[in-house]
Amino acid sequence: MTLKDASCGDLVVIKDFLGEEEIIKKLSAMGVRKGSQFSIEQKCGRNLLIRNGQNRLIISKELAEKVVVDLVKKGEGYCEEISCELIDKACPEEGKPLTQRHRHRKRWGFLHKICPFLKD
Amino acid sequence: MKKVKVALVGNPNVGKTSLLNHLAGTDLKIGNWPGVTVEKKVGKTQFQDYEIEFIDLPGVYTLESAFSEDEKITVSFLKEGDYDVVLNVIESPRLERDLYLTLQLVELKKPLVIALNMRDEAEALGIHIDEKRLSDLFKIKVVKTVGRTGEGVKELLSAIVETYERKLIPEFEVFSFSEEFDTEEKKLSLIKGIYKEVIKKPLIPKKNLTEFVDEFLLHPYLGFFFLFVILYFTFKLVFDLSSPFVDFIDGFFQEFLAPALAVFLKSLGAEEFIINFFTEALLGGLGIVLSFLPLIFIMFLFITLLETSGYLPRVAFLVDRFTHKIGLHGQSAIPLILGFGCNVPAILATRTIQDRKDRLLIIAMIPFMSCSARLVVFSFFALTFFTRPALLILGLYIMGIVFAFLTGFIMKKTLLKKELSHFVMDLPPYRFPSLKVLIKTVNLHVKRFIIRAGTVIFAIAVTIWLTLSLPPGERELEKTLAGKIGKTLVPLFEPVGLGDWKITTSLIPAFLAREAILSNLAIILKAEEREKLEEFQLLPALEEQKEALFEAFKQAFSSLFTLTPASLKPEEEGQSLRGKIRDLLTPSSALSFLIFVLIYNSCVATFVTMWKEGSKNLALGFLLYSFILAWILAFITYRIF
């Protein structure tokens, strides 16, 4: 699994990195290194808030997709992921029919602002 | 005296600048690296027989790859720059992370000193670093410091001198940097080994203040509430605390210095044109520049406080989930909000944004944020011509925001196009910066504004005065150079309903300050006469200024106890001017005029700040773009309504 797939509250250990990009080196320099354990504190919008000891980082999901991790401990209890769903789930999936909630939002023009693929 | 050049290197937010403030004392300068807008801080100090020059390099995590302009500067300076000693500043609580950069600095084969900064924070967390063991391992000097208080600075200076004299280049007993040392794994293992060797920490980490505060400030719902409260009070305090002093400086120049100088020059037998040149052009120009100082000072005080306390990255995290949908970084929220008060400090506040393209994009959006100067014009015209003035003003504000985002969107897709970059950002712990360091940093920014932007604003102010006063001795504004330019502009403004030379001429000095539109119209329409020089008495006038200064302090202090921003309350203008403007404009041409004032970047201070903080092309291009856009929108408005 990748860091992006980890749920809010999970404890993971970094196994490997996908790709040889320069950004991977920066990640390593910032403390995201093979063998280090990170807990996922929040998953919001396009970002994850991860933590290892005193080291807390905000990392985009695109980048988290390049970090291969192993699950050490499944998250339990309270984790702050709720508000992010407002945005993540605001858009209907492409090609699928609109739900009642989506129709309501569309009527107010809200969907057009945040779902660029949506057409009338 | 022997000279030593020291390069300060470290990860971002490790307290390099705070340490530099203590190392260099008062001799600290802020400037730019050649050819770019990245800040360069340089300081000097004398210690023993040495003059030590410190160069504060932008924070980097690694020397292997540089992404931003800041990082490129650090990497190229360390590889090709002129320096004698490297001072590696390490954040003690995060030693393991910072050692990655230290190992890369070792490979430079330059004399190196390590400052284990934030010793107090590490100890509060129960982390103890054996600096002697670290020193033995690298065979260099290691000093524990506290950047906030300046603790350990003397020992650090002594270590720098010793390192320079003995050429203490780091060596490794347990590891030689042979060809084998080229894999990432070996480097990381070495870091782990060093870390384990020198550190003692509790098995269960202590819960610190940052975690407790973040439970509220990064909370999915409460976080936005606190963000709103913090931003609102930042906005309110920046403008409410500064506006009484802005008014005082304005009054001091116009009501005290100018008449005093006029009386003095008159007693010397100077001609009227010369007197006016000194009192209106030179003192007037200086007054415009200095009247920005309280605003810039207080704005930077709050921005530096937000930045050094560690709250700005939290703002970026909270807001980014919304702003990235329209291609903007989360940190863009603060400069854009400050733009509602004054565009100049808002543009200066973009210095906190690291990516150059993102920064230019925000700079191009800020002038559409309707500032308090435009509110004065809006409220006057809205009350004069329209039945629902509040609704109209709100509409104009919203229109400005819409065009800001539209411009941002267009620029993102065209001129400032860039691939979607991976986003990774460190979340530093909350810190209380020392007041001394805070004030010093703010002073540096203010000095920089005076030198970079103030000089140009002053020159343009003098030029505009000349257009209003040439040929010498001409009293009729219609016959001055400005009047002639105004008349030449009439055909251009005729299609938007502003075809009267009085209106077009009033727009010329308005380039100095938007609120000047009203006073210029008043003079042109003879609703107000130019103030005549009455008998000036120095002591009573000085007494008045003393009272005005006291009043400014009183107003600023009392604004601390109000909830709404007092500086944004519209002021009432003379009734005679209202009547004369009603004769000059129709409601539709007045609306067209307001839209033109909203969209056109008609403010010399904003223009110059855009030039200095962004680029010449951005400032000139934006001036043209905003003029064309303002003209088109004013034309549409005039034809429809």
What strand order characterises the main sheet of chain A? 4-3-2-1-5
Helix content of chain A: 25-40%
Classify the beta-strand content of chain B into a percent band: 5-15%
- Give me the CATH fold name of the largest domain in chain A: SH3 type barrels
Helical stretch tally of chain B: 26
Sheet with the most strands: spatial strand order of chain B: 2-3-4-1-5-6-8
Query: Which architecture of the largest domain in chain A per CATH?
Result: Roll
Strand content of chain A: 25-35%
CATH homologous superfamily label of the largest domain in chain A = Ferrous iron transport protein A (FeoA)
Q: What is the makeup of the main sheet of chain A?
A: 5 strands, antiparallel
Low-confidence parts of chain B:
none
By secondary-structure content and strand pairing, the structural class of chain A works out as alpha+beta
Largest sheet of chain B: 7 strands, mixed
Radius of gyration of chain A: 17 Å
Q: Indicate the multimeric state.
A: heterodimer
Gyration radius of chain B, rounded: 28 Å
Terminal residue distance of chain B: 75 Å
| Overall structural domain count of chain B | 2
DSSP helical segment count of chain A: 5
Total beta strands of chain A: 5
Number of domains of chain A: 2
